[in-house]
Amino acid sequence: EDQVTQSPEALRLQEGESSSLNCSYTVSGLRGLFWYRQDPGKGPEFLFTLYSAGEEKEKERLKATLTKKESFLHITAPKPEDSATYLCAVQAGSSNTGKLIFGQGTTLQVKP
Amino acid sequence: NAGVTQTPKFQVLKTGQSMTLQCAQDMNHEYMSWYRQDPGMGLRLIHYSVGAGITDQGEVPNGYNVSRSTTEDFPLRLLSAAPSQTSVYFCASSAGTGLGGYTFGSGTRLTVV
């Protein structure tokens, strides 16, 4: 069964304190791994898609990496506005159904 | 740019009542999906569509129906509401298979009493 697990569930950082969020996955035939950001009371906002092991993508203070078993979202020198829930999802299988399997998310709080 | 529009934003139903959650997108996206989000459970796929006239079941389809008569609209129908359907519902759309990222609506918070 395809599965996505995120850790930690919650993370508190001081402004400027860099850290990483983890997303481990067990799927048959990875088509893509996604990172989304979700603010309270809003829908998820797309950040990155990673397609193959070794791939990296960056956006401002965020950098996502991918291995054959897990992905990391590195946050460098975070600011309070980076506080949100970060969701990891995978798309797998041979058919182009567009179906996503989500992890439970990591809630990040950055204190000034 | 409207993106994905969901209505209503909030709804309270009594057990046994039926209702339709509306979802519309103005980006001419082929792929549309419905998810529910519950504390500790993450987002779970209810139904999805790869184009007008084509729908299929996701992970948790029981108690829900969908149809896709146009590219723009993808309504979700609750047939007979149950307390277990209390949740936040999100509609999402994508231009292709979603590898470029889905655009999500702002959600409908549903409470069934």
Question: If you had to describe this structure to a student in words, what would you say it looks like?
Answer:
The complex is a heterodimer of chains A (112) and B (113). In chain A, strands 2, 4, 5, 9, 10 and 11 form a 6-stranded mixed β-sheet that branches. Chain A is globular, with a radius of gyration of 14 Å. Chain A is built from no helices and 11 strands. With 112 residues, chain A is mainly beta. Helices cover 0% and strands 58% of the residues of chain A. The model of chain A has no long low-confidence stretch (mean pLDDT 94). With 113 residues, chain B is mostly beta strands. In chain B, the strands form 2 sheets. In chain B, strands 2, 4, 5, 6, 9, 10 and 11 form a 7-stranded mixed β-sheet that branches. Chain B has a 4-stranded antiparallel β-sheet with strand order 1-3-8-7, with no helix packed on it. In chain B, a hairpin with a 2-residue loop joins strand 5 (42-51) and strand 6 (54-57). Chain B is globular and about 35 Å long. The interface between A and B is medium-sized, with 26 and 29 residues.
**Major sheet size, sense and barrel closure of chain B:** 7 strands, mixed
Strand content of chain B: over 45%
The overall average pLDDT of chain B, rounded, is: 94
Task: List unreliable stretches of 5+ residues of chain A.
Answer: none
Summarize this, please?
The complex is a heterodimer of chains A (112) and B (113). With 112 residues, chain A is mainly β.
